[in-house]
Design brief:
- The chain has 19 helices and 7 strands.
- The protein is an alpha/beta fold.
- It starts with a helix and ends with a helix.
């Protein structure tokens, strides 16, 4: 591993780290894309997260391309950025004076050609041109960025003069951003003896990336005449300057966080005047230089007082270790990219969290509603409605048979009436039971639909309509087929015991399984009817027959209700099976929600690990 690392260039190593971040994000994307949506709510959630991950992957790969292809790896790029007229150009000019300038470039080939033509036909070609890039106080400021390639101890570095941000810089905004993106290190030049105000601080934050290391350069501006008194030349770092430096550092740490590396106070004008050989065009600077050297006694003392050597030392160190600085800058950038990706994933999860939590609660609530509504329906049908139907039908049967007992009609007529009543019982139970089911099932379906309305993801979740069909769940057609009492063998309507048993068996078949048990009871009742129809029986026999008839019908009613309870258990079991299917469907949706949240959590964990161990 060590040999491989030695053979691999820093650029390639950094490229591999970019690729690792992209691969981690892509792995998370594949996990998210593999989650089956199932319904629109889950699809929207999944697609939002997947789209954000694709965007982050694209951003990482774009930054990798810039790092490997567009950014220089053979020299350190330092951008001087800050307020208009803060002294950026003065500082850069001083570097050009102190270090050998290898070449000067501009941001375009056209600009380079124009500069070359100007140089060839300018008088400055024939004498020193120091000071020509420095403003003269007439509201001039850098309008496009320029590169100044210098070297210290044979280590190249490039200073980028970036347009200022306190003039009308809107038209130069793209130039400012382009210049700053090219820099490995940024020196922000502060030209006021106070901390940046909130508006300026916001501009700084907006322009600067959150990965480039930033140093503040506190340029202590002032005319040469400020140092004509001896006590003014004792130290540049007066208590007032030191206090301001603390305020500047506090503000920059607040604005930039960990990428802020510290502050360097200096006096750029004095530093430039110490070593420059100004162009005759800059008589203002020539006069200032003469005065300041006169005040301090020598150029070296002026340079020492200016504290400019501190920034020189820093640039020298950075240039000496420029590869480490570039690698470190990219590592910081990668941490920032990972942090941004983490924040973007968190944002998607958080933005959907309220909606997803609401859906989660709705789904759980609907599960409870299905159980409550179906159980309530079953209870009403089998504990209230159908027993009432049976009671009503059997009570009606009882009253009609008693009426026939008391009737003085001919025996054949009574026989026909009894047959008609018993035959009608089948239709009454069937029709009234079906009506009960139709009404209750309709109300149950409507209530379930109301509860489901507005819940995304439940479009395909429903109780099987077959289960809700009364013709299937209460098989009255089959039950009533045998309800045809055979009176043909009962002569003179003298319903004997044998005939009564057959009649009872037919009634007992109203509910499958009741059979002869109910038949015996109803048969006995019919036997009493026979007795009462006999002309030679006394009136008290009629009363006794009615009494026994009532007992028999009551017994038959209880047995039918007992069979209803068995049917209720079967029906409830089928509904519970449907409830289970609904629960499984809802749980599947909930599992998909959890899968997306879990995938997002794993992605964030991987990004956190990447940031810690990069």
């Amino acid at each position: 591993m060590a040999d491989n690392k030695t053979r691999t260039s820093p650029k390639e190593r950094v490229k591999l780290i970019y690729e690792k971040l992209a691969v981690n994000l892509d792995k998370g994307l594949r996990k998210v894309e593999c989650i089956d949506d199932g319904n629109q709510a889950i699809k929207d959630f999944r697609d939002d997260l997947a789209e954000e991950l694709r965007s982050q992957i694209s951003h990482v790969r774009d930054e990798m391309q810039r790092c490997v292809k567009d950014m220089p790896w053979d020299k350190l790029m330092i951008a001087f950025f800050g307020e208009t007229n803060a002294g950026k150009s003065t500082i850069i000019e001083t570097f050009r004076i102190l270090f050998k300038q290898r070449k000067e470039g501009s941001r375009s080939l056209f600009g380079a050609v124009i500069n070359a033509i100007k140089f060839l036909f300018s008088p400055a070609r024939w004498f020193n041109s120091d000071g020509l890039i420095v403003g003269d106080g007439r509201h001039d400021f850098t309008k496009e960025y320029h590169d100044y390639e210098l070297s210290v101890n044979d280590k190249p570095f490039v200073l980028i003069d970036v347009p200022g941000i306190e003039g009308n810089e809107c038209q130069f905004k793209n130039d400012i951003s382009d210049a700053l993106r090219r820099a490995h290190i940024v020196f922000y030049v502060q030209g006021h003896n106070k901390k940046p105000d909130e508006a300026t601080a916001k501009k700084i934050k907006d322009y600067l990336s959150d990965w480039t290391k930033v140093y503040s350069v506190q340029n202590i501006r002032g005319a040469v005449s400020n140092y004509d008194e001896e006590e003014e030349r004792e130290t540049l770092l007066t208590p007032n300057i030191v206090k301001t430096e603390g305020l500047i550092q506090e503000k920059f740490r607040e604005v930039l966080g960990d990428v802020y590396m510290g502050n360097i106070p200096l006096q750029a004008l004095l530093a430039m005047c110490a070593k420059a050989k100004f162009s005759r065009k800059r008589q203002d600077l020539i006069k200032a230089q003469k005065k300041v050297i006169e005040y301090f006694g020598s150029a070296d003392k002026v340079l020492e007082f200016s504290n400019f050597q501190e920034v020189v030392k820093l640039v020298g160190y950075l240039s000496e270790h420029f590869v480490d600085q570039i690698v470190d800058a990219n590592r910081t950038k990668l941490r920032s990219l990972a942090r941004h990706a983490d924040e973007s994933v968190y944002t998607v999860l958080n933005e959907r969290n309220e909606q997803i939590e609401k859906l989660r609660q709705q789904l759980q609530s609907y599960k409870r509603d299905v159980e409550r509504i179906t159980d309530s329906c079953v209870y009403r049908v089998f504990s209230s409605q159908l027993p009432a139907v049976i009671d009503g039908c059997m009570s009606n049967l009882k009253h009609k048979l008693i009426s026939i007992i008391d009737d003085d009609s001919d025996t054949d007529v009574k026989r026909a009436k009894a047959k008609q009543v018993l035959t009608g019982l089948r239709g009454n139970i069937r029709d009234q039971s079906k009506s009960v089911f139709d009404k209750e099932m309709k109300e149950m379906r409507q209530e379930l639909a109301r509860k489901k309305k507005g819940i995304r993801g439940l479009e395909s979740i429903a109780i099987n309509g077959r289960v809700l069909s009364p013709d299937v769940k209460l098989d009255l057609d089959c039950v009533m087929d045998n309800l045809d009492i055979n009176l043909g063998d009962i002569g003179s309507f003298a319903l004997g015991v044998a005939g009564a048993a057959a009649t009872g068996a037919a009634i007992g078949s109203i509910i499958p399984g009741v059979g002869t048990a109910i038949g015996a009871g109803v048969g006995a009742a019919v036997s009493f009817v026979r007795q009462m129809f006999s002309s030679d029986r006394e009136e008290k026999k009629k009363a006794e027959a009615k009494k026994n008839l009532q007992k028999s019908i009551a017994s038959a009613t209880d047995r039918i209700k007992s069979q209803l309870r068995a049917m209720e258990a079967d029906f409830r079991d089928e509904l519970r099976e449907e409830q289970r299917k609904v629960d499984e469907s809802i749980d599947a949706v909930l599992r998909k929600i959890e899968a997306i949240m879990e995938a997002g959590g794993h992605i964030r964990k991987d990004l956190d690990q990447f940031s810690k161990y990069i």
